[in-house]
Amino acid sequence: MSVTGRIVIDYDRCCGSGMCALSAPGVFDQRDDDGTVVLLTQFPPPGQESTVRTAVENCPCTAIRMENSDAKLNGLG
FRET pair for 61, CA 20 to 30 Å: which of 7, 15, 52, 75? Predict the structure, then answer.
């Protein structure tokens, strides 16, 4: 999976497991009250591609995805 574009969170699907915050702590955090994901940046910082990919792949609730900016521009996303 290529990590380009922006990170999209489906907050209704988030189960608060914390896998995202453990995988990419500079990109994801969690709310203190219920553990729901907090997105710190919509676009993966340089050098964080592999950690964001790991967070997307390891989310047990499939609440995180990447939206490819090229696909959006071409009407595919």
Answer: 75
Q: pTM here?
A: 0.81
| CATH of region 6-72, choose from 2.20.25.90, 3.90.550.10, 3.30.70.20, 3.40.50.620 | 3.30.70.20
Segments making up each domain of the chain, as ranges? 6-72
Question: How many residues in the chain?
Answer: 77
Round to whole Å and give the CA distance between 25 and 31: 13
Rounded to whole angstroms, how far apart are CA atoms 18 and 30?
Answer: 7
